[in-house]
Amino acid sequence: LRTNALAAHELARRLLPLLRRAPAARIVNLSSTVASLAEQLRPGSTYYGVTTLAYNASKTLLNAITVQWA
């Protein structure tokens, strides 16, 4: 969680003053299909039944943080 989600959150928080001054500021985070909960539940998906709990949890948290920052 610390690397995939919390570090991205902390970096965005610290850069926020600069981002607010920029004319076209963007925060871009990279997630992955491996972390897709929908893909893990869809029969026929490459990732159906794949269990990578810590990775999925951290990328899901990153997605939630990205939505909150938006």
Record keyword descriptors for this entry.
single chain; 70 residues; mainly alpha; 0% strand
Layout of strands and helices, then pairs:
Layout: H1 2-21, H2 37-41, H3 53-69
Helix pairs in contact: 1-3
What can be said about this structure in brief?
Helix content is 60%, strand content 0%. It contains 3 helices and no strands. The mean pLDDT is 87.
Largest sheet: none
Strand content of the residues, in percent?
A: under 5%
* Average of pLDDT: 87
**Number of extended strands:** 0
Unreliable runs, pLDDT <50, ≥5 residues? none
Q: Kindly name the structural category.
A: mainly alpha
The helix fraction, in percent, is 55-70%
Count of DSSP-assigned helices: 3
Shape: elongated
Separation of the first and last Cα atoms: 20 Å
C-alpha Rg (nearest Å): 15 Å
Order of helices and strands: HHH
Describe the structure.
With 70 residues, the chain is mainly alpha-helical. It contains three helices and no strands. It has helices at residues 2-21, 37-41, 53-69. α1 packs parallel to α3. The longest helix is centred in the first third of the chain and has 20 residues, at 2-21. It is elongated, with a radius of gyration of 15 Å. It starts with a helix and ends with a helix. The model has no long low-confidence stretch (mean pLDDT 87).
